Predict the 3D structure of the following.
Amino acid sequence: MHTLEFAVASNQPALCAELAADLNGHLYVDERGAKGLPFQALLTATTDTLSKLLPAADVGLYVICRRLVKPGTPKKIGLFPMIHHPEKTHEECDAHWRDNHAPLALVHHIHMTHYSQLSVVHTVQGEAFDGFALCGFESEEDIRERFFTTKESVQVINDDVKKFADVTKSPRRLIATPTHMA
């Protein structure tokens, strides 16, 4: 199922938590402070009141399409911000990410308990990200030690990512705890 939502990249996790509760949103927070990363929290929500999100959007505000590739309830998320490959358009890279990379990810990340692609449809303000991959696992240890199915999987996935993402400009991953506000 695909839905259009807003995503807020922020260094204000407390404010994002308040907004997630108010808007029944999803919140992903790197409790380690996201040192060296462009943001500490990612909030996603569906709302018709954009002005509620603006105070938290100190890094960026995006219209996204959430593509649920593998449903599940992860305890930890490897959150990967993506910037598209410099020699291709956003649309070309997004199509490759959706149509080619998603099936590869399911084969080469068998310990992954959840996988969503948050494709940026429009940047309202801030950093020019093209998407956010949410790779869910049972634990942070699984993200660090069991991310890939085999040693060959590392090469397959890395080679494929280079086809649609700018690996030098895309920030490194956050390890976040997901929260769904019900």
About this structure: Strands lie at 2-10, 26-29, 41-45, 60-70, 76-82, 114-126, 131-137, 174-180.
